[in-house]
Amino acid sequence: MKESMLSTCEKSFITDAIAEGKRLDGREMDESRVMRIYFGTDWGCCQVSLGETKVLAQVSCEVQKPKTTRPNEGMLFLNTELSPMGSPHFEVGLQSELAVQLNRLLEKCIKDSRCVDLESLCIVAEEKVWVLRVDINVLNHEGNLVAAASAAALTALSHFRCPCVTVTGQETVIHDPSEKDAVPLNLHHYPVCVSYAIFNKGELCGLHLGGSSLTSHDLILQCANRAARRAAEVVQIMKLALKEDADARAAGKSVGFSECIQETKLLALSQKQLGLQLDTSQLRGETLKLVQKKNKHIMYDEKGVKVDSGQDDRDEDVEVEPSVILLDRGSAELLPKQKRIKTERTVPTEAGVGEGGQNQWMKIEGDNESLDESDEVMSSPSDVEVIKEVSYEGNKLVDSIELSGDSEEEETVVLNAADVNMSVENTDDSGTSENIRNWYPVKQW
Amino acid sequence: MYKMQIESEEDCLRPMNCQLNVLSRSDGSAMFTQGDTAVVTAVFGPAEVKPQRILIDKASVEALYRPKTGLPRVHDKMRETLIRNTCSTALLVTLHPRTSISIIVQEMQDSGGLLACAVNAACLALINSGIAMKFLVAAVSCMIDHEDNILIDPNSKQLKGSKASLTFVFDSIKKNIMACHTTGRFTQLQYEESLLKCRNGSDKIFSFYREIVRKVHQEHDRMSPTCRT
To answer: Where is the Exoribonuclease phosphorolytic domain (chain A) (predicted)?
Structure first.
């Protein structure tokens, strides 16, 4: 989205008001908005709000090799991000002019002024130094980003603690903050950016030689004095906030951004300790049931060898669902479920109707057509036995795969038609010895 | 001020705080904390859309997740995808064709359960922005530790001793799973158990949403009984 432009009459309204010494929000000419500083639970994390402008800063550190030109010093990197959250016209990644300007200003302010004692960041000369990284994120842009961002960066640096390091001979040990207290950074002085806008005959410019305006050197001196006073104020606010945070941490009170949510405000809400009223005793039972139900379902769908688990279903008319038969490692084939049922039913038994004495397995291939089998043929225990045997091996494997749930890939094996045929010479059935493989897809995982 | 005291049982969610409308430039915003994990979210939309993202029949939803330090990495992109998919399902996108709705999430503090916190904050920001939604979404995280205990809404200290962590996102009407993100190994039984526990926990989050909306509207009615803004 593009930045919304101010209309001419709006501009002239503002400049006329300033000419009269009035500001749109009622402030005095050199009055600043209220600055609030909040700290997070991590060291080096702070949020500064200057009126509505909000900026978040975080300092982090890492051990790296130092620059060859300066082997005794640590390094400091500043990164300013204009998050799209700050304003609708901020883009991701696109380095707009404002972003570049802001970045450069902050670098000048903090890096070039050498406010952080970089030599104290050295661990082992020429080998290991602390590299500090300050990330500044603009949350809301309502003007004067420079001041807010510089205050945030400075506060974050003052708040940050580097982990304690002990060097013993060749080894360098970095202590966890819970073991040994972390060490704060050394700051020589506190540089604060204060920005003034100079109006001159309706033209706007910033203090740091940006833009264009004709000003006298008196004005600049005046500004500089005022800025010095303002900077001192800001540093006061900052030190006060740091002290409060330190006290809170020492007293063990809770710190962090949840404190900056002002509960008394209209749009705020907080809830503590939300206990779940879940009857855990029944939980296990419920989940077990669920799991079993799902397993049953799954077994029928994909690995329908589970004839044994679905013993109650055996006599139903089942829809054609593929079932996997595992033969040996590395191969399996899918057979439609119906087929399997049919197989059972056509297997002759002493009690059932059908040819007796023949090899049961011949019936498999032949009998796939006969759908008019009487349903009264009850599968006798012997049926169960036979079928169970064939797929027993498969059962075990699939069983273990099913319930353990750990393996991500099940091994499925491809059945060759030859294997299924077993010891088939000829069949007496009218059904042609169809190639079973035409019936189902052969899946190779 | 609204506080709810419940006797702490074994399972409990961390205390939640939220403040709506914290940012002045965005259409909707929320700062949301769960325990020590804090996230601030902003929503812009329905707004002008770039030509390459334009969709003629619905709004184009995009989500951005910004970590606190460094540049966005792969798992940040994964969070973005999850948030975007969840929100585009929850929003009535067909009401605003040829527009864009952007949801921007900024991490402020990470103390475990960041993905769940981000999704919940995004939902609150969407509530604040007033864009029409089909239902609300709530995310609950849980973990399985080495003794096979299931802990709801763990903090970062507890997460260090975990062997699996799961985050579920539910919708408010039927409590169906909208999204699920897991890391680590677990059995099917453990998954089902965690799912049931998290589903139970999501009730608390939905009632939290209801409370804050009720609070806002009560005050509105109290302050301006005749005119509705």
So the answer is: 31-163
Interface test with B, best of A258, A290, A293, A401 (most B CBs within 10 A): A258
Name the nearest CA neighbour of A118 among A160, A155, A80, A71: A71
- Whole-model pTM? 0.68
Number of domains in chain A: 1
In a domain, A28, yes or no: no
Residues in Cβ contact with B113 at an 8 Å cutoff, skipping those fewer than 6 apart: B14, B34, B35, B37, B141, B153, B154, B155, B167
Contacts of B109 in chain A (CB under 8 A): 40-42, 45, 256-257
Cross-chain Cβ contact B64/A284 below 8 Å: no
Q: What is the mean pLDDT of residues B110-134?
A: 93
C-beta of residue A298 within 8 angstroms of C-beta of residue A402? yes
pLDDT > 60? residue A249: yes
User: What's the pLDDT score for residue B143?
Assistant: 92
**Which residues lie below 8 Å from residue A265, measured CB to CB, with a gap of 6+?**
B19
Half-sphere exposure of A191 (CA within 13 A, CB side): 16
Q: Is residue A266 part of a domain?
A: no
Judged against a pLDDT cut of 80, whether residue A404 lies above it is answered with no
Instruction: Write the pLDDT tens digit of every residue in B167-221.
Output: 999 999 999 999 999 999 999 999 999 999 999 899 999 999 999 888 888 877 7
Residue B174 near chain A (CB below 8 Å): no
Q: What is the CATH number for A186?
A: 3.30.230.70
- Can you tell me the distance from the alpha carbon of B177 to that of B199, in angstroms, rounded to the nearest whole number? 9
Which residue has 């360098």 as its token pair?
A172
pLDDT in tens, A171-217: 777 777 666 677 777 776 666 666 655 554 433 333 443 334 455 56
Q: Which residue has the higher pLDDT, A345 or A52?
A: A52
- B15–A272 CB contact, under 8 Å: yes
Residues of chain A with Cβ-Cβ distance to B38 below 8 Å are 40, 256-258
Asked if B215 reaches chain A (Cβ–Cβ under 8 Å), the answer is: yes
In angstroms, what CA-CA distances link A366 with A339, A373, A429, B127? 11, 14, 6, 65
ipTM: 0.85
Write the CB contacts of B220 (distance below 8 Å, at least 6 apart in sequence): B228, B229
Residue A167 resides in a domain? yes
* Interface touch B10/A261, C-beta < 8 Å: no
What is the arithmetic mean of pLDDT over A219-233?
Answer: 71
Residue A284 carries which DSSP code?
A: H
Distance (Å, whole) CA A292 – CA A312: 15
